[in-house]
Each structure stands twice: as C-alpha cells, then as structure tokens.
Amino acid sequence: MPNNFDKKKIDILLIEDSPGDVRLTKEALNEIKMDSELYIVNDGLEAYAFLLKKGKYQNVPTPDLILLDLNLPRMDGRELLELIKEQESLKSIPVIVLSTSNDQEDVNKLYMLQANCYLTKPVDFLGFVELMKAIEMFWLRLVLLPSKSVKK
After folding, report:
1. Could you give the angle at which helices 77-86 and 44-52 cross, rounded to 10 degrees?
2. Tens digits of per-residue pLDDT, 60-92?
3. What pTM was computed for the model?
4. Got the DSSP string for the chain?
5. In sequence order, what are the residues at sequence separation of 6 or more whose Cβ sits closer than 8 angstroms to the Cβ of residue 41?
C-alpha cells in the first residue's frame, strides 16, 4: 500500500482544550503505533500562533495534518478554521474537525468553511482507537497529501 511520507514521522497538530480528549488521542495514537509527532495546543489563539510560527512557536514544523476541536477558548474552532483557509501558507493543510456535536448545522457550516473532514468524537477509548486507525488508513496511507513546499 502506498505511503504518503518517506520521512520518519508525520507532524500532527491537535487543537483541543479537553485534557481527557488530549489523553485519549495520545493513548489511541500510541496504541495503533502511528509514526507521528503530536503537537498540542489548547485554544484557538495558541493554535493560530503555532501555525504562523509566532513567539514561542518560531521553530515548530508546519503540521501535515490538523485535528481541530470546535469548542475552544479564546477563539473557537470555526473562527480558527476560517483563518486557516484564508491564509495562503496554511490552506493546503488538511483539517479534520473532531466534535462531540453531530448537529447538521455544525456539519454544514464547517464544510462551508472548507473543513476537509468532520468526525464525531467517540466517548470511549476503543472508539478513539478505531477513529485514529481510520484517520491513519485514509489520511496517511490512501490520500496523497500536499508536500511541505506547497505550504510556504
């Protein structure tokens, strides 16, 4: 099966304010042994600073994939997604929205804002593991992602 990356790890930015969901995501990635480097920010403003490499984030890599929660402090996920997709250097990064909401209005709004995928968060560990397996299979093994040079 083809692999998108010849490098050793994929860089994933998790934008999540719930410590429990951060822990579940870390444990699920560890469980499936995804070859990734996980970067975590807890609110929308920090995420935007990370993506723009501002302040303490000057030396972070550009993520290959973004996992975005919707309900974030200081700037919510909807606002952040809109900024990401307006920014020439960021808009090619795939953004997977992970939300507890399955409200059709939320789903429609996020796709209008150019989310690449909208997934409902599982509430248990096994569900999170299955979700991460599906993300790995689709986004990291099947889909051809843009190269880092496109994002500059």
Report:
1. 20
2. 999 999 999 998 999 999 999 999 999 999 999
3. 0.89
4. ---S-SSS-EEEEEE---HHHHHHHHHHHHHHT--EEEEEESSHHHHHHHHHT-GGGTTPPPPSEEEEESS-SSS-HHHHHHHHHH-TTTTTS-EEEEES---HHHHHHHHHTT-SEEEEPPSSHHHHHHHHHHHIIIIIIISPPPPGGGG-
5. 13, 14, 15, 47, 50
